[in-house]
Amino acid sequence: MKYRLTHRTEYVYDKPVRNSLGTHHLRPRDLPWQHLSSHEVAIDPVPTDHARDTDYFGNAVTYFHVTEPHEHLVISATSDVTVEAPQYDDAALAVPWEQARPLEEGAWPAQWAATEFALESPRVAHIPDAAAYGAVSLTPGRPIGEAATDLMHRIHRDFDYDTKATTVTSTVADAMRKRAGVCQDFAHVALACLRSHGVAARYVSGYLATQPPPGKPRVVGADASHAWLAVWLPASDQWLHIDPTNDTWADERYITVAWGRDYGDVSPVRGIIWSKAKKSTLRVSVDVAPVLEPEPA
Known about the structure:
- The chain is of the alpha+beta class.
- It has helices at about 90-95, 110-115, 130-135, 145-160, 170-180, 185-195, 265; strands at about 1-25, 35-45, 50-55, 60-65, 70-85, 160, 180, 200-210, 225-235, 240-245, 250, 255-260, 270-275, 280-290.
- A hairpin with a 5-residue loop joins β3 and β4.
């Protein structure tokens, strides 16, 4: 499926900002199932310093520095991307979950690269509640694909999607206690459940193309950033992308932008400002529009 993706981030301050220094992860990755055909980002005011790079995890990241005094900063990204549903090796899905623990003994070729995704990270603590919750799915000898999918089903069933239950700084413990949160929280909870048992899994940031209700038009800008996770399949060195928020494996509706240990590694836009401003307003608008192919003549 082809999409035209737009992501607009707008900051408004009550007093001028003298310097705005930041980074953004807004460029979708090129993957075996995803092809990026075009991408551009416009920043207003125009940065005096601007550099593109690749971060430690292989994600495209851009640094910018705006020195023109401003009370209004806008970062607009537009991408054209084609996505197919990822395909997985059945034999790799059938490997017992215990073998997806890179810190344990093993001889998988890419085991070293998966190791850090089995460790704690700043936003994914290996708390006892997560370990106990994960153990229900991670029964002895269970295939990794089946165990990860069962965990996905259970989080979707047991946790309520509630935008008011958590904030961007909420912890795994907060989400576990409230049994509620948003996609970021559900991904972090699933990661804690798996990693606390040694299973390698990584946080994925991107977008989900949504369809309007029957008879309703698409509302431009009503989409949002999304988060899910990917679980290491050691036998094929693939990563199984699962979404606890929507209780499904990622398919052609999912646009992958970046991955890392947790949200802190891949936040779409982050930075610092030099200002006497006391208040600021953040507005984010996302649109994932299908690009329909012309009918054959």
